[in-house]
Design goal:
It is a single chain. It contains 14 helices and 17 strands. The chain has helices at about 1-20, 25-45, 70-85, 90-105, 135-140, 140-150, 155-170, 195-210, 220-235, 265-280, 290-305, 340-350, 355-370, 400-410, and strands at about 45-50, 55, 70, 105-110, 115, 120, 125, 130, 180-185, 185-190, 235, 240-245, 265, 325, 330-335, 335, 380. It has a three-stranded antiparallel β-sheet with strand order 3-6-7. Helix 2 (about 25-45) crosses helix 3 (about 70-85) and helix 3 (about 70-85) runs antiparallel to helix 4 (about 90-105). The radius of gyration is 21 Å and the shape is globular. The two termini are about 35 Å apart. GO terms for molecular function: isomerase activity. Keywords: Isomerase.
């Protein structure tokens, strides 16, 4: 397996060195250009002068297909615009405008504290009986990055209120960690815990806010520690060599009667967990033992995942499939997904140079496959043969600018 892999890699690298898209420009200019073309797709097609924000649902060619403005999509735009202001200062004004819209229309309040509406349409919030950890965590994503860039004192109190409401609703006071859903009427939802309910709050905003809000780091550190400990113990399955995606209320993985895993898995979540653990190995508020454990497991997950039969025709330059059965490692979805490859690139960038060649190949694949050079923006999916799937929206409830610009942030070493 390793000999075959190395042969394929060497052959691929010869191709890479001759055809990498940024051969003629510096990395800095290349990443700036890719950031600009992604943001410009939304700027050209989705901006509303009337609302002073971006519509969220945009088709392949740039047509707005609804009046909805989603919290996650908007928050991820704020993140992208805020970070990209280093390349174009005018982006910061747009980030502030979208943040103003979010504060005015997409944030609610109840006895349990502040929370995010899923969306607004015609400036009316959509009704929701349940709050899910994904949308609530990413509701803080953009504002956290905006604060990191500006240290705007008006933004910080809102972040504190949203964070407090988030912890009040989702934290499990008995078993630790965070529930995946919260019912507005009855409270936390049993059976809703998952890898994502532990991981997404940290990657979406909590670590970024810990970095930016240095005077109040104690607000975040205990929850970061708790989630990392649970991820270390329950997030990785050494038998299946996949992540445990669905978890019981006691954090054990959900299994069928025969003991097999009762969920599907993605390669992207393997890489996302490894990246988080590698980041955690540098956190000063953790013990030396914890940091060593997290680094070791983060590296192990990458080592194992790269040796799996995940690549189209077994070649790394062809990208990897989207979804697998963890019990058999059989492919369940042979499409390729933009966000999963972004997570892979982030993870490899954190492995201290061991997989630089593989990362470069993933980068080349990512920008050649998912960036749309005709209409702008990027595709969500490509087929197994790398044909763009144009029926999937380029702008949706959760898709705008986040994963790609987050990846560029790591590649430019602007992270903790």
């Amino acid at each position: 397996m390793k000999i075959k892999y190395c042969t394929i890699l060497l052959t691929s690298l010869l191709f890479f060195r001759c055809s990498k898209p940024d051969n003629k420009v510096s990395d800095k200019d290349f990443y700036r250009n890719e950031t600009k073309q992604l943001i410009d797709f939304f700027e050209k097609n989705a901006w509303s002068n009337e609302l002073e924000t971006y519509y969220s649902e945009i088709d392949n060619e740039g047509k707005v297909i609804s009046d909805k403005v989603y919290t996650v999509a908007s928050s991820r735009l704020i993140y992208g615009l805020s970070f990209a202001s280093r390349y174009n200062p005018s982006y910061l004004n747009k980030a502030k405008a979208v943040a103003t819209f979010q504060k005015k229309h997409l944030i609610g309040n109840s006895k349990a504290g502040y929370y995010s509406h899923s969306f607004v349409e015609n400036q009316k919030a959509g009704g929701q009986n349940k709050l899910d950890v994904w949308q609530q965590a990413y509701g803080l994503c953009g504002l956290s990055e905006l604060y990191r860039q500006t240290h705007d004192l008006e933004t910080l109190p809102i972040l504190h209120q949203l964070h407090k409401g988030f912890i009040t609703r989702f934290r499990d006071k008995e078993a630790g960690g965070l529930w995946g859903e919260y019912n507005i009427e009855s409270g936390p939802v049993s059976g809703s815990k998952s890898l994502q309910s532990l991981m997404y709050p940290l990657t979406a905003y909590m670590i970024n806010l810990w970095e930016a809000d240095q005077e109040n780091r104690a607000f975040y550190e205990n929850q970061i520690k708790e989630n990392l400990d649970l991820l270390y113990r329950y997030g990785w399955n050494s038998k299946t060599e996949w992540v445990n995606v669905q978890l019981n209320d006691d954090w054990t993985p959900k299994v069928k009667e025969d003991g097999s895993m009762n969920f599907s898995v993605t390669v992207g979540h393997n890489f996302q967990l490894s990246a988080l653990l590698l980041r955690a190995s540098k956190f000063p508020f953790l013990s030396v033992e914890q940091k060593e454990n997290y680094e070791r497991l983060g590296q192990e997950i990458i080592d194992i995942t790269l040796q799996k039969n995940i690549f189209h025709h077994g070649k790394i330059q062809n990208g990897f499939y989207s979804e697998f059965n963890p019990n058999t490692s059989k492919v369940l979805d042979d499409r390729k997904t933009w966000w999963q490859h972004a997570e892979a690139i982030i993870a490899l960038s954190l492995y201290e140079g061991k997989y630089d060649d593989e990362r470069h190949l993933f980068e080349q694949y990512f920008f050649n496959t998912f960036a749309d050079r005709k209409y702008g923006g990027e595709y969500f999916y490509a087929s197994k043969d790398d044909q763009p799937i144009t029926s999937e929206l380029k702008g949706s409830i959760g898709k705008s600018t986040y994963h790609t610009i987050e990846m560029i942030r790591f590649l430019t070493r602007d992270h903790k």
